[in-house]
């Protein structure tokens, strides 16, 4: 008789926030108004999955992503990358963590215009002083084929289409083999075909390369590329869909709109 199979071990989330509160603005003397952008959000971003964050405009999507990725700090609550709590890190460690464990893709591509495609892609390794690492070189070389940029390696970003530039940004985000890639509206500046290519690429990074992706989007078609969708409204987590379809996401968004989300709670300070 064969030995019983061990119970599957639940994999720790790649990133998570617990009781996350973010209040912008307000003054000690009460002369301004404070905006509660996150109002007690707890959410896991599972390792090896593609999660989309959706919600009406102003619901707190970008704030959640920025705080989860250590680009901004929470007013209260905690944010973790793996087991590392970001609030416990000083600026230097936070910078190192972002560089070594997180990849970023932004709507505006954010490539360095004076560097070639190849140089842009290897920038994270260069900054980390890891140039020449053979494993890294092989990984980066494979990435170039995955993103389909082999014949553009010596061009500069200004010589590429928007879709090609965003593919460079995706390759750069993956180059350091980060624990998690955060993408903020990565298809926001692209036509639908280029957007589809970038989304397929992010999906492939998860499904064939074992990476973890968290993406903010307002587009139900983009969200349908994810494994999971989490919905925010008024800075609160209000829903979750697994294996989403664009229609399913749209229906859920409409029901959020019907709830008459009143927008940010403005709290006189
Ligand atoms: N730096 C800031 N100072 C003050 N208020 C801010 C700041 N950044 C965001 N907010 C407010 O916090 C709330 C949430 O903003 P956030 O950008 O996270 O929402 P979002 O869901 O990403 O919106 P959108 O889809 O329109 O980009 C909004 O009311 C916004 O006006």
Q: What's this entry about, in short?
A:
It contains eight helices and eleven strands. It is α/β, with parallel strands linked by helices and 269 residues long.
CATH-assigned homologous superfamily: P-loop containing nucleotide triphosphate hydrolases
**Low-pLDDT runs:** 261-269
Q: Give the strand order of the largest sheet, numbering strands 1, 2, ... along the chain.
A: 6-7-8-3-9-10
The helix count comes to: 8
Following the backbone from N to C, one meets helices and strands in this order, namely: EEEHEEHEHHHEHEHEEHE
Structural class of the secondary structure composition?
alpha/beta
CATH class: Alpha Beta
CATH architecture: 3-Layer(aba) Sandwich
What proportion of the residues is helical, as a percent range? 25-40%
Instruction: List bound small molecules.
Output: adenosine-5'-triphosphate
Percentage of residues in strands: 25-35%
Average predicted confidence as pLDDT: 88
Cα end-to-end separation: 69 Å
Query: What characterizes the major β-sheet?
Result: 6 strands, mixed
Computed over alpha carbons, the radius of gyration is 19 Å
Assign an overall shape.
globular
Beta strand count: 11
Q: What's the domain count?
A: 1
The CATH topology turns out to be Rossmann fold
């Amino acid at each position: 008789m064969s030995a019983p199979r061990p119970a599957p071990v639940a994999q720790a989330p790649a990133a998570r926030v617990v009781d996350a509160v973010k209040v912008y603005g307000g003054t000690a003397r009460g002369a301004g108004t404070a905006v509660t952008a996150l109002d007690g959000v707890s959410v896991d971003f599972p390792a090896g999955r593609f999660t989309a964050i959706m919600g009406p405009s102003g619901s707190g999507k970008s704030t959640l992503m920025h705080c989860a990725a250590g680009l901004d700090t929470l007013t209260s609550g905690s944010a973790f990358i793996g087991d590392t709590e970001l609030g416990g890190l000083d600026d230097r460690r936070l910078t190192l963590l972002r560089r070594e464990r997180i990849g970023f893709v932004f709507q505006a591509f954010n490539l360095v215009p004076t560097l070639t495609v190849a140089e842009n892609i290897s920038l994270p390794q260069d900054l980390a002083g890891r140039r020449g690492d053979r494993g890294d070189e092989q990984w980066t070389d494979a990435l170039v084929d995955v993103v389909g940029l082999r014949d553009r390696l010596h061009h500069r970003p200004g010589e590429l289409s928007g879709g090609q530039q965003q593919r460079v940004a995706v390759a750069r985000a993956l180059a350091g083999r980060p624990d998690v890639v955060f993408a903020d509206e990565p298809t926001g500046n692209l036509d639908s075909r280029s957007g589809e290519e970038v989304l397929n690429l992010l999906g492939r990074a998860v499904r064939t390369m074992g990476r973890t992706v968290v993406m903010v989007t307002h587009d139900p078609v983009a969200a349908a590329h994810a494994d999971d969708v989490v919905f925010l409204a008024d800075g609160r987590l209000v829903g979750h869909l697994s294996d989403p379809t664009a229609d399913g996401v749209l229906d859920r968004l409409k029901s959020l709109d019907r709830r008459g989300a009143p927008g940010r709670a403005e709290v006189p300070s």
